[in-house]
């Protein structure tokens, strides 16, 4: 039996409840834009018809078109935050939610910085989990904290993870031990 993942079921229930909460024919409520503050979470919400929503849809047009070909209509969540220490430079956070686009780790969030009028650059791609701004900065940009512990820092062009990858020697030894304990049948 096919089941919706728990996070999608919760989203479906919240969406249905909000639709039932308004009179028939009434337009959905416009959600206020939530701007994160240093040392705070980036709040992602549906903001249909807003400039943030339109920009998010344009930047993710390929993923949205591919989903439409599969008969899927992802929910577009957006948020903004002042990543730069310079006033007025705000980032766009985008998360597409659908059964096909979200995995066991949840739905991925991407972060964009505006380079010029109407031009955006992706500076962090596809992280899963809640995103918060840190008071700490690198290169004039606030660090991002994913899932409460995974710190990403600005390297001058994009954000990079600070969690070290597992040492290759340990991985190689682990594979060799496993292969020695589980020989291939001939």
Count of beta strands: 8
Whole-angstrom Rg: 20 Å
List the uncertain runs.
Answer: 1-34
Query: Percent of residues in helical segments?
Result: 25-40%
- Proportion in β-strands: 25-35%
The count of domains is: 1
Distance between the termini: 37 Å
Helical run tally: 4
Give the rounded overall mean pLDDT.
79
N to C succession of SSEs: HHHEEEEEEEEH
Q: What is the SS-derived class?
A: alpha+beta
Specify the biggest β-sheet. 4 strands, antiparallel
The shape, in one word, is globular
Largest sheet, spatial ordering of strands:
1-2-3-4
Signal peptide: 1-26
Region (Disordered): 24-43
Keywords: Signal
Properties at a glance:
186 residues, alpha+beta, four-stranded antiparallel β-sheet, 4 helices, 8 strands, 25% helix, globular, signal
